[in-house]
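Inverse folding, one chain.
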């Protein structure tokens, strides 16, 4: 029997708690995480490029959220017919120096910009425990859709860890995600 996954809203706290628990820069008590809709004109990227294949994928993700009557990108989970599910990690921005910087979700932010969507629903982080990995402050209007082979150094203006905050890992920790699952 074919299983058709579906996307459903989940409580915002689910993802926020995972980020707070598993991202080293966010575990400190001073760090504040909340779900917010941030105006796109307030958002800056630390990269001048997004990958073209990811940009094409975002259109499909937007369609999934629309078909499920969900706000893009509210807290959500893809559920499978076998009772398992996986969180769709929302974009993450860090507020520092009076500006919002995309930590996760560069392509989703650019897609919103190019499709005249004025706000990005995302996790907003304040008082992060680590500095940003790049000094670049690129407005969305200056971001370029590039090829698959753009190096991390070229994208971020220097060397950074490829997943320097571990956002995706934090929301998919096996001990949390696969709790009580018989495999």
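Residues assigned per position:
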């Amino acid at each position: 029997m074919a299983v058709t996954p579906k996307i459903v809203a989940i409580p915002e706290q689910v993802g926020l708690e995972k980020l707070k628990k598993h991202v080293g820069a966010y575990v400190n008590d001073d760090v504040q995480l909340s779900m917010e809709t941030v105006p796109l004109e307030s958002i800056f990227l630390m990269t001048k490029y997004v990958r073209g294949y990811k940009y094409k994928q975002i259109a499909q993700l937007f369609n999934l959220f629309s078909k499920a009557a969900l706000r893009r990108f509210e807290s959500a989970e893809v559920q499978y017919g076998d009772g398992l599910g996986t969180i769709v990690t929302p974009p993450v921005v860090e507020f520092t120096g009076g500006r919002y910087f995309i930590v996760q979700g560069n392509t989703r932010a650019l897609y919103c910009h190019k499709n005249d969507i004025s706000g990005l629903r995302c996790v907003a982080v304040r008082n992060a425990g680590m500095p940003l990995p790049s000094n670049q402050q690129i407005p969305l209007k200056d971001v370029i859709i590039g090829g698959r082979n753009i190096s991390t150094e070229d994208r971020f203006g220097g060397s950074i860890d490829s997943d320097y905050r571990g956002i995706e890992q934090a929301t998919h920790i096996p001990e949390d995600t696969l709790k009580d699952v018989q495999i």
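The chain has a mean pLDDT of 85. The chain has one domain: 6-158.
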